[in-house]
Amino acid sequence: MPEEGVNLQKRRFLTTTTAVVGAVGAGFAAVPFIANWQPSQRARAAGAPEEADISGLAAGGLLRVKWRGKVCWIVRRTPEQIAELKTLDGQLADPNSIASRQPDYCANPHRSIKPDYFVAIGICTHLGCSPTFRPEVAPADLGADWQGGFYCPCHGSKFDMAGRVYAGVPAPTNLEIPPHRYLSDDVILIGADGGDV
Question: Which of 98, 151, 103, 88 is nearest to 124 (CA)?
C-alpha cells in the first residue's frame, strides 16, 4: 500500500535516471581500463611485417632487416653457392631440415622460395648469439673445407649458405626461417606468410 504523500511517478523517474547516469558513468570508467588491455602502438609496430627492398642487393651480398626485435638476413646467393649446397649433406647435422623451424614453402634443399634469395633470422640456435656472414671459401681461420656460410664466434657453430647447421657443433638445429613472401621481384615482406613467387 503506497504511503501518503509519495509521488510514485516521480520516484520511478528518479530511480531510472539514477540508474542511467550510473551506467553511463561506469561505461566511462571502464573505457580506459579496457583500453589498457590493448597493445601499445609501439608494440603493434614491433610485430608488424617489415618490407625489404632487395633491388640493390648484389650477388653474394647480405641485407639486414629488423623484424620483431630480431635481425633477419636476406642473402643473394651466387650460382656457385647454390650448386655447393648439394655437396654438403654429409657434413650437416640436419641436411633435410626435418628438426628445424621453417615455413612449408621453404622445405627444400635451398630452404627458400627462390633459390638465389635466402631469408633467415640471424640468431644462433645454440645460445642466441649473432653469427657472422662468412661467404668466402676456405679462409685460414675456418679451414679448407669451408664453402661459405655463417659462423657463430661465441661457441664455434657453423651454418652453410642455406642456414643448415654442421654436425659436431654446439647449435642443435638449423637457423630459423621467418614467414615471408615476395610483393614483387624487388620487395620481400618479412613477417607475412606466403610463398607465392
Answer: 151
User: How far is the C-alpha of 179 from the C-alpha of 19, rounded, in Å?
Assistant: 52
The owner of cell 539514477 is: 18
Q: Are 118 and 163 in contact (CB under 8 A)?
A: yes
Instruction: Say what the pTM is.
Output: 0.73
2-51 residue pLDDT tens: 567 778 888 888 889 998 898 888 888 877 777 777 666 665 666 688 99
Identify the CATH number of the domain in which residue 100 sits: 2.102.10.10
**15 is a domain residue:** yes
Parent domain of 163: 49-190
Domain shared by 57 and 121, yes or no: yes
Neighbours of 155 (CB within 10 A): 12
Strand partners, 71: 66
